[in-house]
Amino acid sequence: MPTTFVEDLASEYLIDGDEQVRRQTQMKKLCNTCHRSSRVNQHFAKMDNTLVETDKMVYAATQLLLTAGEKGIAEKNQSIR
């Protein structure tokens, strides 16, 4: 699930959870026409894990920039606040 720069769940302008499930189900059906269901499920599990890891990295980088901005280490135009 996408998050904001302060690790809150992002929802504004995004599709809701039910719509995400509906779209993923459609995509899996399409993938299953050529690939085994185990392969499709592995792909989506890997993608979900990649998104979680990416969110963690973006959060850590954002916190670093915020701290640098607060301590005056980064120029104001480089800080996200």
Itemize the secondary structure elements and their pairings.
Blueprint: H1 17-32, H2 37-70
Q: What's this entry about, in short?
A:
Helices cover 62% and strands 0% of the residues.
3D structure, described in words:
The protein has a domain at 38-81. It is built from two helices and no strands. It has helices spanning 17-32, 37-70. The protein is elongated, with a radius of gyration of 18 Å.
Poorly predicted tracts of residues: none
Q: What is the tally of helical segments? A: 2
What multimeric state do the chains show? single chain
The helical percent reads 55-70%
Mean pLDDT: 85
Shape: elongated
Number of β-strand runs: 0
- Counting helices, strands and paired strands, the structural category is mainly alpha
Looking at this protein, list some descriptive labels:
81 residues; 2 helices; single chain; mainly alpha
